[in-house]
């Protein structure tokens, strides 16, 4: 099983960034996909969930209206589009499937 995240980087406050996660080694379409983030000194936070068919998503209040999760079950890929990013969004972002595993993550830094 592998989770390969990409798309992180440095962005200015108010900017946008898109992340991708290619999942390998299991039947991608059978599972809900999650994006987590963890900032230094803080607990890991679930920031987005999308169910198997992709027609239902869940976000915490901290990112609701700014983050959008989607998936392509043909490409075995999950996406996280983030807009109006703020310094408090700075963290390592990783994709995960419960009881399957989680990727190493990609760094997102929001700074001027």
In quaternary terms, these chains amount to single chain
Residues in β-strands, percent: over 45%
Taking all Cα atoms into account, the compactness measure Rg is 13 Å
Number of strands: 11
| Alpha-beta classification | mainly beta
Distance between the termini: 37 Å
- The total of helices stands at 0
Overall geometric form: globular
Give the uncertain stretches in residue-range form: none
Mean pLDDT: 96
Q: What share of residues is helical?
A: under 10%
Reported for the largest beta sheet, the result is: 7 strands, mixed
Secondary-structure element series: EEEEEEEEEEE
Short overview:
The protein is mainly beta and 112 residues long. 0% of the residues lie in helices and 50% in strands.
